[in-house]
Amino acid sequence: MGLEDQVVSLKLAKKLKELGVKQESEFVWIDRMINETETNENRIIVLWKDVLSEWEPSCEILCCAFTPAELGDILPENIFYKKMDGINYACVSYPENYPEQIAETEADARAKMLIYLLEDGLIKI
To answer: Where are the domains positioned within the chain?
Structure first.
């Protein structure tokens, strides 16, 4: 399992940034500058923030790549996740006030729940 599978997807990470979620995480999505040997598919990667200085200025920080634990710290306490069918994860609330948010990874399920709560004005950051 790669680091990209352990953090929120780039698409959801960009949405969280757009919604004003504070960009504080141990990991970031970066867009590396392309040289003659790199292809576009290898350009956007997750990087541990502590080693970012080794890459600068050859990259642009796109947004934070939140871990499930970091998203859990942002979400209300009544939100939790469960693993379903051995593959998918779902974020649910207790009591069940909000619809389940299902994704392939725990990080994405938590991110989808946070997006839902922010877009519907149910929580503020």
So the answer is: 3-64, 74-119
Q: What is the mean pLDDT of the chain?
A: 84
108: helix, strand or coil: helix
Does this model's pTM top 0.70? yes
Residue type, 23: Q
Q: 3-state DSSP helix/strand/coil percent for the chain, to nearest 5?
A: 35, 25, 40
* Cα separation of the two ends of the chain: 31
Instruction: Find, among 108, 109, 73, the residue nearest to 90 by Cα.
Output: 109
Rounded to the nearest angstrom, the gap between the alpha carbon of residue 34 and the centroid of all alpha carbons in its chain is 24
Cis preceding linkage at 76, omega within 30? no
SS3 93: strand
> In this structure, what token pair is assigned to residue 55?
């890459």
